[in-house]
Structure formats: C-alpha cells, structure tokens
C-alpha cells in the first residue's frame, strides 16, 4: 500500500472532505526542510529554575567522569611510586603495584577485595602514549583493567584473552604517531584520562605470597619515551613508605557539588559526546557559558547539583536500589565497564563500587538482604550454602566478600574478609555442599570456624565475584543461593 493512499484514507476517516490523488506522493513542505538550530540559543535569558534543572541532570550523569577526573588530579603532584599508609600512588602514566592483599584500612575505593594483588595508575594520554608490560604469569589468573574517563574499558589484557607476555600500547583519541617495533597491540582510548588497575590472583598460603613476587616485579607502565624493547623490572617491596593520609569511615570524597560547575567543562572537553549525546552536551555547555557572568544562575546550578547528590546519587550506594533483580534478593549487572549511555547504572556502580571489570572478566553479585528481605545485620547469624558443585562456575576463581555499611573492611580476629578459591582449608559437607557461616561471633564448632566469615558490627553487605566466569554465570542460569538467617 502506497504512503499517498494511506494519507488519503486518513483524511477521509477524519472527515476532511478532501481527496488527494493516490498516484501523487506527498512530499514535505519546504518549511519542514529548513536548517534547525544545533543547540540552544545562547543569546536568550534563562531562569534560575532552569539552571538548577540542568545542574541536577548533568550532575547525575557526569558524576562518574568528574570522579575519575579528580582521582587523576591527585596523581599530578606524585613524582615516584610510593606507599601512603594502606594506599599506593604513582606519577601520571605510571603505575605502582602492591605486593600483598590490600590493607583493610583502605578508604579510597569502595568494595575492594582480598583475593588479588592490586596495581594502580592514572592516565594522561594527551601528554604521551603509554606502554604496559605483561610479564609471564604462567597459570596464575590475572587481568589488567584499564578504563577511560567514563569508566568504560578499552583494553583486553588477561588470562581470559590468552594474552602473551610482552608490550602493549595505550594511546589517546587523537594520537597518530608511529608504533615502535616490539609492541604487540595498540589500544585506543576515547578519552585522554583513564585508569589502569591490574589484578593478579593470590591464594592464602605463605608459599604463594612468595611466588607471586616474581611476576609482580614485571608489571610496569610508563610513557612511550621510556620504551626500549626490554622488559623492565621493579622490586615493589622497596618503594618509599609515606605517612597515611587522613581517612574517615566512608569512601574518600571525589565529587563536590560546589566545584562541579567549574570542573564540568574540562571533563566534557576530554570526553566528546557519544552518538546521541550531542544535544545533551550542547544544552549543558550553553548553560555553563551563561553561568560565567551570572552568580545567581551559577548558585542555582550548584543547588541542582547538591540536590542530585542527596536525592539521586547517594541512594545508589545501596546495592538493593539498582541492578537486575535475582532470586533471594541478590542483584547483578551485565554491562559493567561498558556502560555507554546507561547513565543510571554507570553512576550507581561508580557510587557503590567503582571500577568493575568487564562481564567476561568478572561477574558481580550484590546482597544487602537476607532471604526474607530483611537487612543484613551483625545482631543475627546467617549461612550461605552452595550445593554440591554449586559454587560459582569459573575458569578463574570465585570469592564471597563481606563489607560494613560503608562498603569497606573492618578488622576482625582472624583477619578474614572473604572466602573462596584462595582458601585451602574450607570444609565441605559429606554431601559435597559448602556452607559459609556469616556472623560476628566466632563459631565454637571447628568445622564451622573453618568456614567462618566474620561480620562487622551493624548493617553489612555480601558480594560475590566470579572471575573469568563460565557461560552459566554470564548468561544467568547460575545465581547465588539465599542468605539464611539462623533463628
């Protein structure tokens, strides 16, 4: 059926009393073809409420990018790899490696784990491409997470990719230089700002803690000018130790509503709009331009940002407020480190547990509630029972971690914050099942004590990681068992 006939039929149905020749298709009026403006007219007056609206909206979707930008700023004055209390730091375009599990007093990144040895480095690719070294890890699980300003991954380096030892190059969006001989592969970021976070598996035995030091020494990152085709080695146990910075109970604050209007133009310049974001960017940038000359409008914009912080961003710290809902009140996500324009999930993850791996690298399961939907709390005792062959199906390893109400570790009597593949002394039942006992008090039964995950005081959360998950995990046929309250 021709479009022209449909138009005629519609006019008749509406009683238009006008017949159009069926053989003459109707074209658009010339006025419909006029060039439309590409964005808002910056010459017009805007209201304070509108500035507030734009500030509120922009604060929500740009929150992860400003978070990453401010983490980069912290690295600017760093001149060498150092430890600062429980943290590590490196100059821009370099990284620093830990040599053991992360210290439980760390408060810079929420939801850390004690299954891997971490590395950390911030990228400034506008100044130089960066070489990443991959040593020979043998059969040990490893993955390098490297993300852009949006916290989207742009690198595939790890055991699950069959990555070979060698040299890999990270370049910015506009770099057009010559790739030196000996570089195995080039990865291009969509932004100049980024973060590199290697994760190398370590089990709980003293033997493995010694054995891992050899490959750790070869995990390096440095500007292209320092590349000479030879594998560089660094003994990370000998880097300077500086005093610990002040730390509170919650994650260090990285996004500030009162600074947001000043930082946002810089951030948006580093992260050009994704397809479909052009109008969003134009709207925000037009308002930001007006704010420069109008303190009242700027104050309204900041008020919108503050409102978004309290009403929109802060609630997403709770795992139960977002994600794909699974049986027994667990939740998960499936687009980790590939958020694109999924602003809600990207901001929720950045607020609650920033820097997650890609789904084929790690699958995450979050839990704030017991099986009956009541908030997990140390006043009660719980069990998590995996049936025979029912632990998370992985090619790499799995773990069940526990965090306090602020998503951090709290010191306990046995210095244990997670259980899983790394533990060599877990006790399986006669039927092949594995029960983890989650409670504040040490169990009296030796079998239960071996499987004890100490609960911090007050409300807490549980968190399952499946590293290099098998298809049943990524496709959703495997989900975690209920967290049962022991009455």
TrEMBL record:
Residue intervals of the DUF1254 domain: 93-223
- Where is each DUF1214 domain found? 362-470
InterPro entries per the UniProt record, alphabetical: DUF1214 (IPR010621), DUF1214_C_sf (IPR037049), DUF1254 (IPR010679), DUF1254_sf (IPR037050)
Q: What is this protein called?
A: DUF1254 domain-containing protein
Lineage here is: Bacteria, Pseudomonadati, Verrucomicrobiota, Verrucomicrobiia, Verrucomicrobiales
């Amino acid at each position: 059926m021709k479009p022209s006939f449909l138009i005629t039929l519609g006019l008749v149905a509406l009683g238009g009393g006008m017949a159009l020749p069926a053989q003459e298709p109707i074209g658009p009026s010339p006025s419909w073809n006029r060039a439309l403006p590409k964005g808002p007219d910056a010459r017009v007056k805007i209201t304070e409420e509108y500035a507030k609206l734009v500030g509120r909206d922009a604060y929500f979707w740009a929150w992860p990018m400003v978070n990453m930008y401010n983490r980069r700023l912290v690295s600017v004055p760093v001149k060498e790899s150092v430890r600062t209390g429980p943290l590590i730091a490196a100059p821009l375009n370099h990284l620093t490696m830990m040599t053991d599990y992360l210290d439980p007093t760390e408060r810079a990144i929420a939801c850390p784990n004690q299954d891997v040895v971490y590395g950390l480095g911030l990228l400034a690719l506008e100044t130089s491409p960066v070489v990443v070294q991959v040593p020979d890890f043998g059969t040990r699980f490893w993955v390098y997470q490297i993300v852009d300003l949006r916290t989207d991954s742009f690198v595939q380096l790890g055991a699950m990719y069959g990555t070979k030892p060698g040299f890999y190059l990270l370049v910015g969006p506009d770099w057009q230089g010559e790739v030196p001989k000996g570089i195995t592969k080039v990865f291009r970021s969509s932004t100049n700002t980024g973060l590199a976070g290697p994760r190398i598996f370590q089990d709980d035995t003293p033997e493995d803690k010694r054995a891992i030091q050899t490959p750790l020494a070869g995990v390096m990152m440095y500007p292209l000018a320092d590349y000479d085709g030879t594998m560089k080695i660094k003994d990370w146990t000998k880097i300077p130790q500086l005093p610990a910075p002040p730390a509170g109970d919650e994650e260090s604050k990285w996004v500030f509503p009162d600074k947001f209007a000043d930082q946002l133009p810089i951030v948006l310049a580093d992260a050009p709009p994704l397809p479909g974001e052009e109008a969003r960017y134009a709207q925000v940038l037009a308002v930001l331009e007006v704010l420069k000359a109008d303190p009242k409008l700027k104050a309204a914009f900041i008020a919108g940002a503050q409102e978004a912080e309290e009403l929109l961003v802060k609630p997403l710290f709770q795992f139960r407020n977002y994600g794909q809902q699974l049986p027994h009140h667990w939740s998960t996500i499936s687009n980790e480190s590939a958020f694109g324009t999924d602003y809600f999930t990207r901001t929720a993850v950045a607020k609650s547990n920033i820097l997650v791996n890609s789904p084929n690298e790690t699958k995450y399961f979050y839990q704030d509630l017991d099986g009956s939907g009541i908030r997990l709390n140390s006043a009660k005792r719980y069990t998590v029972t995996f049936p025979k062959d029912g632990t998370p199906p992985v090619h790499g390893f799995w773990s069940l971690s526990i965090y306090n109400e602020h998503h951090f570790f709290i010191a306990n009597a046995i210095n244990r914050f997670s259980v899983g593949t790394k533990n060599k002394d877990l006790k399986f039942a006669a039927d092949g099942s594995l029960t983890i006992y989650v409670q504040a008090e040490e169990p009296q039964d030796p079998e239960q004590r071996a499987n004890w995950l100490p609960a911090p005081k007050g409300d807490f959360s549980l968190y399952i990681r499946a590293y290099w998950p098998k298809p049943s995990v990524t496709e959703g046929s495997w989900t975690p068992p209920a967290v049962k309250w022991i009455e």
